[in-house]
Amino acid sequence: MLSSFTRNGRIFRSVSAGILLEKGEDRRLTCSYHCWEMHAEQYPGKLGSDDAEAQRVFRILQGKPGTIVGYVKDRIGNTDIALAELKKEFEFKNEFMEMGYRPKALLASEDVTPGDEFLLDSYSIGKQKLKCLGRRAFFSATSVPAGPDVNRQVLPGTADAEGPLRFIEFDQLCCGMNEPIMASELYIRDGACGTVMLRCSMRDENLSPHEVLSRGEVCAMMHFGDIKEKGFLTGDNYYIWADSFDPLIKEGWTVVQTGESVKRKEKFSKYQNIKLTKG
Description:
By secondary structure, the protein is mainly beta. Helices cover 9% and strands 41% of the residues. It is built from four helices and 20 strands. The protein starts with a strand and ends with a strand. The model is unreliable at 143-161, 165-170, 184-189, 226-235 and 260-279 (pLDDT under 50).
């Protein structure tokens, strides 16, 4: 569990920790931007800085009562994906809480087929299976003229092949739960944001769940739940939206492989897989 603070030092919001990524010498932990979105609005220009005030405003509490383990450093485009820098004395291992598998690679949304299935593993909801129902794209507000050097694909009936271009800023996957009937109150929103989706089944491949899970492919991060219709809830009218990791792949981020770091004497935290380390 990762939490942000109010000005008087109380917990503001809590979300699930994501996965640890690396690019060159930099390592960052994924988390949900909206947990610190109001902080960014109240302190414009501070997100992305590494001065003392930025580290205080965007500091991250892990657990409850908890420990300050780092601060949110960046937001990826207009997505809900934020990247946090952890303090040097803390170590994060890419391991799930209830699954004997680990994340190994970021999966592009174009390589996901509707019907593929994914597992969530979060402190707030435990292990849940989702099925991909489709994708939706968010387009940039600006457009540029088409030219001969532009490789473009136009869906029939959706755009003029010779007209101006609008680029996709990011994709979201639309997923559904596998529960046929949900008669009780939903709690999947509470703290589940930020949980990564691990592919466990591929619609078009004749592979066992173990074979798929062993690939360690994570494609997106839980954003929010959306009840399509009011009234009695079933798995058919409850959508879950997840921000794809496409922008991270484009920027060159990769998953830190568990076991790479030097083993040290460790004291396990009660709430998540961040470990307090000594020496």
